[in-house]
Write a structure and sequence with these properties.
The chain is of the alpha+beta class and 232 residues long. It is 31% helix and 20% strand. It folds into 3 domains: 37 residues, no CATH class; 115 residues, no CATH class; 34 residues, no CATH class.
Amino acid sequence: MRLGDFLDMFSHRLTQFVWHIWRKYRYHISFRNGGVDAFSQRMYSLVGLGHRQLRDKLAINHSKMLAYSGILANPGRSPEIICGLVSHCFDLSEVTLQNWQRRKVDIEPDQQNSLGSYSLKNGEKLAGRSVLGNFVLGTRVPDLSGKFQLSITSLTRKQFLSFLPSGENFLPLTMFVSFILRDQLAWDLHLGLAPEQVGAMRLGDNKSALLGWTSFLGTPEERPSVTIRVRS
C-alpha cells in the first residue's frame, strides 16, 4: 500500500464534507427533475406553493416557476411579469396584455339611486342617494380600471384549439392566471391564429365547425382571432 492510499483512509470523511459544502451552494448541481430537492421545496414555499396539493391544482410544469420565485414573492404584478410567466410555462412565443379595458359594472340593488330615499347609519339619516354629484342613472356604471385582456397570438391550429374553453389548456391557463394575480380582476382571453393556420370548415367536424370559434368562411385576409370572456 502506498503512503497516499494510507493517508486517504483518514481524509475520506473530510473529503465527503467538502463535497457536500461545494454542492450546497450550487443550485444547478443539487436540483432534481421536477423540483423535488430540498432547496426547490423552499423556493415553492416562497411563492405560496409549498404544499404538494396546491401544486397539483395547477396543471403546469411547476419547476418552470422556480425561475420566477423572486418575482412572485413580491406583491406587484406588472403586465410584463404576467406575460413572461404565461409564455414560459405554456411554451408560447407571443403573449401580450392590454390593460384599461372598458366594461360595465352592475350596481347592487341597495346601492342604486332612488328618488326620495335616504341612507341610514347608526339610526341617523344621511344625505340622500339622489342628490347632485352622486346620482347615477341605470343599474350599471362604466369602468376602466378593473379589466384587462390577455392576448396569445401566432398560434398553430392545434394550440388554438387547446386554449378554447373546450380544450385541454383552457382550465390550466385560467387557474394559473388566477394564481399569479394578486387582485382577481375581470379579464378576456384573445386568441389569434398564425398565418395559413385557418382550416376549411367541414360540417360534422367538431373541431372545425365550432360556431364563433373555428367556423371561418373562406380564407380571411387578416389573421383570424376570437375573444373569450373569462371573468366578468
